[in-house]
Amino acid sequence: MNLTLAISPCPNDTFIFDAMIHQKIDTEGLTFTYILEDVETLNKMAKESTADITKVSYGAVSSLINNYIILDAGGALGKGVGPLLISKIKPSEIQVDIINTTIALPGINTTAHLLFNLAFPGAQHKLFMPFDHIEDAVLNEEVDLGVIIHENRFTYAAKGLYKIADLGDVWEKNTGLPIPLGGIMARRSFDQALRQKINRVIQKSTEFAFEHIEDLPPFVKENAQEMDEAIMRKHIDLYVNEYSLELGLNGRNAVMRLLQASTEFNNKKITNQLDIFAD
Q1: What pLDDT does residue 180 have?
Q2: Domains, the chain, ordered by start
Q3: Which pTM value belongs to this model?
């Protein structure tokens, strides 16, 4: 059975999914046609039910649960992994007027946008663009501030940019829970047996990746935005962890708390009583 799999080209995703995509493990009869897109494009594709299995921002889950359900494996959660608010000006030389400041963000449906809203609810001037354009937008003074994610956490300082705030700090202080950044969802129409099989295969793929971490596969290196292997490894070390193997109770609690925060911030209610997590 062939399934379409939509993930980002970032090292954490290509690291996790390489073994199953390239049949390095027993995939239990499943094969995968993969699609690589930035996270905001993945969110939009998920709204159109494009792929069978897809990476999404946890901040976008509330709009996707009619058609998709969250799998236990393959996601990105953790502490100290929050998006960063950056500037071209040193923090000691800037006084942020968040209402009148222009801020670049990596997509309206991203978890980064939600965490920014929770930390700075008064912002009025937001520009949304692909995550890998934000550093240059700040450097070129197209915007005053930018919210960066993924491997840009490891490159901004070398480019002469400065951290103004870690947007995960507010979340962690208020909840004590890991930050749910991105998760893996499968079609809700799949039966339980198929969802469980997909989840097992993702877990096996992740375990295989950890067992062979000394030698990063070409799939990771060829698709990384930053080609320095040291940065790829830092990215993987930060975003791939025990929650990538299994959400567990703590991870599920974090996702539910974020979903609640999202609906409250947007003055919405979840009227749908469908299960959020696959069995």
Answers
A1: 93
A2: 2-78+178-265 (3.40.190.10), 84-175 (3.40.190.10)
A3: 0.86
